[in-house]
Inverse folding.
């Protein structure tokens, strides 16, 4: 799969480059695609110098109860992220993002990359980057979303926010029909903690490791690619893949274990029908696990979400021009183990479904006050009657 | 402006109504959770600490393995209830006729069929001619059983069947662990003590059971047993890369406290006429000879467990259960055909922790109560026969009674 994708993408590049000799370096794309997401932030356009500082702030209240058991009401300052952008040259850009979660509980350098634009269809990107997997990972800034929580499929299946040390290329091809965007990267990749972790299930997010910014755990890079098509009518659809060998099969040059691979495939959609905004993501994981662990650590997972948003009021409100009040609905599901029990072949549970309703008010495009109601049906490994989790969140998020 | 005020009001009402919009708590008798009545606030807090450890999933970084069965207590004792067939443990040995070899040098007595990455899981050796599987028991109400005096258990023993009722329950005397501290109600017998936990009553205390399960099921060493488990076929004393002991006595004691303070399952529909009639029949056909309904605890260091009447429907004695339930595997002081009478409380909620089905008996072979009864033999043969001679209505009443437990 990896080799095929590599061959496909790399064989496409020179051909595409030759077909577009008249493309202008300065050609701009104003779409809000995942590929552009890191530069589609308001702070960059505000400054008059080559360097700009910005960021976003996100906080919310929580009131949840699982089958009548509640911790009560609490508040959290979920994220305070600082961006630093510099246009080193007309075609060389630097951007970084430093994230503070829950105050200083977790501090992470989420992005620090350089983009060299050789041609709109051929840009070199290197540094700490956000792999292009699905809709949310590279486009996860909270002020862009109308729900406090990220979709389950985007966190528990796709391990958003996943940032990695990597290098690769991205670009766009423009035609009357629309824009084709591609991304191809090599990166150190997720590591051993995907299984035998404290989650007790296959959990890609547990494969993150601070050491992955320093060196690969197995000397075999992972590969990420995304191909997207967009136009003004369709919006954007994307197909992405991330995968490779994740386990430490080699220590001190000695092979101590079999190589085990993971494959994460995602389809995403972002479109609108009249004023109805539609976003969705469908992700599949296939993973090899050691013999005997297949039942406990699922070898196949999937997750999906579909989010609908519709403005109900857009006008001057409380002194804000073009303020917007909108309603939102999100349906989502994640199956963490699609396997079956060895003893009778019946389906393993370990899945969650959720429905969320939201109301958001945006005085500006990059600032939002939102209230959500979430309800989860949580099935344990054995498929027992579900636990019910429900709650209300009210939050704020804004770019600055 | 009126719109905004309305919106603010709606939002405010929604927030004030938070507790009305979230899932309600199930009725206490419908779930296997909750604490023994009368705990102090400090004890409630300690219970929650143990609860967290009970649900903790051990990963490689925590010392899981190197060989193991499950990664957390709560995977086997899901929802504190009876286990699911997929989490059964396997024990094996070699029956040599006059002697029984637990094949310790081949990975016995318990199989750990899983291993951390890069390590070799155990498999059943060719010498194993006895293989038995065990379903995890319910962990509710164990504090009451732990607080029962040996004298109370002995009061129901009749190993020579002197009363001639065909029931000859006997206490299971086993060697205590090195860290066993007898309480006032423990009575030694030639250095041995009565086992009351485990399907063959092979463990004297909950502490024994917790230390054993941490090591044999999860591969977690503790202050009480710091020697890590390993696959002898992979090399003796090779193991995970986490220093032993992997958990402290605090963790172990918290787990024990958690189990000691889980309440006994509550009855449902106890006043239903059919249930009451079923209860009467249950006694009349002789089931209560082993499944004793009432016991009283001795004085306990946990005041809420002192001198309390409880209803486990067990005598905590070993009984010959006949050839159909003879697993060929002697354990502790029990012969292969002997089993400790299991408590029946929580039986009616088995389906809520066993994936919507019912898996009964030591290896989950029975998928219903009638089927479980059909396997009863040995000392329980007469009660079994009496049950199957009842009318269909009466059998349903007995089952309805059992489902009310």
């Amino acid at each position: 799969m990896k080799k095929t994708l590599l061959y496909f993408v790399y064989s496409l590049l020179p051909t595409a480059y030759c077909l577009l000799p008249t493309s202008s370096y300065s050609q701009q794309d104003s779409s809000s695609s995942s590929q552009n997401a890191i530069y589609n932030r308001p702070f960059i356009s505000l400054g008059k110098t080559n360097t700009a500082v910005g960021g976003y702030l996100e906080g919310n209240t929580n009131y949840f109860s699982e089958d009548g058991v509640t911790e009560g009401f609490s508040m959290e300052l979920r994220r305070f992220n600082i961006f630093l952008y510099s246009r080193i040259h007309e075609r060389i850009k630097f951007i970084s993002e430093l994230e503070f979660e829950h105050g200083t509980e977790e501090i992470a350098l989420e992005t620090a990359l350089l983009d060299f634009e050789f041609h709109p269809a051929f840009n070199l990107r290197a540094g700490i980057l956000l792999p292009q997997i699905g809709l949310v990972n590279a486009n996860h800034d909270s002020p862009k979303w109308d729900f406090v929580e990220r979709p389950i499929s985007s966190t528990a299946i796709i391990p958003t926010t996943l940032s990695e040390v990597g290098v690769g290329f991205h670009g766009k091809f423009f035609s009357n029909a629309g824009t084709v965007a591609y991304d191809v990267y090599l990166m150190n990749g997720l590591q051993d903690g995907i299984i035998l972790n404290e989650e007790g299930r296959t959990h890609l997010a547990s494969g993150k490791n601070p050491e992955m910014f320093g060196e690969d755990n197995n000397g075999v890079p992972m590969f990420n690619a995304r191909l997207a098509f967009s136009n003004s009518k369709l919006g954007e659809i994307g197909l992405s893949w991330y995968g490779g060998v994740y386990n430490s099969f080699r220590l001190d040059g000695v092979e101590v274990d079999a190589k085990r691979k993971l494959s994460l495939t995602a389809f995403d959609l972002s479109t609108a029908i009249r004023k109805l905004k539609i976003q969705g993501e469908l992700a599949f994981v296939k993973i090899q696990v050691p013999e005997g662990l297949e039942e406990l650590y699922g070898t196949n997972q999937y997750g999906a979400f579909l989010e609908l948003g519709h403005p109900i009021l857009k006008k001057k409100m409380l002194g804000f021009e073009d303020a917007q009040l909108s309603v939102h609905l999100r349906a989502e599901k994640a199956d963490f183990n699609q396997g079956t029990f060895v003893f009778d072949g019946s389906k393993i549970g370990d899945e969650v479904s959720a429905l969320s309703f939201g109301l958001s008010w945006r005085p500006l495009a990059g600032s939002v006050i939102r209230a959500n109601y979430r309800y989860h049906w949580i099935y344990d490994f054995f498929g027992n009657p579900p636990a019910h989790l429900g709650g209300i969140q009210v939050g704020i998020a804004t770019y600055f | 402006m009126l719109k905004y005020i309305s919106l603010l009001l709606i939002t405010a009402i929604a927030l004030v109504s938070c507790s009305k919009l979230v899932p309600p708590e199930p009725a206490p008798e419908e779930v296997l959770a909750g604490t023994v009545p009368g705990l102090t606030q400090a004890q409630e807090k300690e219970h929650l600490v143990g609860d967290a450890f009970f649900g903790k999933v051990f990963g490689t970084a925590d010392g899981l393995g190197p060989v193991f069965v499950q990664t957390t207590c709560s995977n086997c004792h899901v929802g504190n209830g009876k286990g699911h067939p997929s989490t059964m443990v396997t024990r094996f040995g070699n029956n040599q006729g006059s002697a029984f070899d637990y094949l310790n040098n081949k990975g016995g007595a318990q199989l750990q069929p899983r291993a951390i990455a890069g390590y070799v899981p155990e498999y059943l050796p060719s010498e194993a001619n006895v293989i038995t599987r065990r379903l995890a028991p319910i962990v509710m109400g164990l504090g009451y059983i732990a607080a029962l005096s040996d004298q109370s258990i002995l009061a129901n023993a009749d190993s020579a069947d002197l009363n001639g009722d065909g029931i000859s329950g006997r206490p299971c005397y086993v060697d205590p662990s090195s860290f066993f501290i007898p309480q006032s109600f423990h009575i030694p017998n030639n250095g041995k003590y009565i086992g009351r936990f485990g399907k063959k009553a092979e463990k004297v205390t909950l502490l024994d059971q917790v230390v054993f399960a941490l090591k044999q099921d999860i591969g977690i060493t503790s202050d009480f047993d710091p020697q890590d488990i390993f696959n002898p076929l992979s090399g003796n004393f090779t193991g995970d890369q986490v220093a032993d002991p992997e958990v402290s006595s605090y963790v172990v004691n918290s787990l024990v406290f958690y189990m000691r303070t889980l309440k006994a399952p509550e009855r449902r529909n106890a006043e239903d006429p059919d249930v009451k009639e079923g209860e009467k029949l249950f006694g009349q056909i002789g089931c209560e000879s082993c499944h004793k309904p009432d016991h009283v605890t001795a004085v306990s260091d946990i005041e809420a467990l002192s001198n309390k009447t409880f209803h486990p429907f067990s005598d905590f004695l070993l009984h010959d259960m006949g050839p159909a339930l003879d697993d060929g595997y002697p354990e502790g002081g029990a012969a292969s055909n002997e089993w400790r009478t299991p408590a029946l409380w929580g039986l009616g909620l088995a389906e809520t922790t066993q994936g919507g089905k019912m898996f009964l008996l030591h290896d989950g072979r029975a998928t219903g109560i009638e089927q479980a009864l059909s396997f009863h033999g040995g000392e329980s043969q007469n009660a079994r026969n009496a049950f199957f001679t009842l009318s269909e209505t009466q059998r349903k009443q007995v089952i309805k009674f059992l489902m009310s437990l």
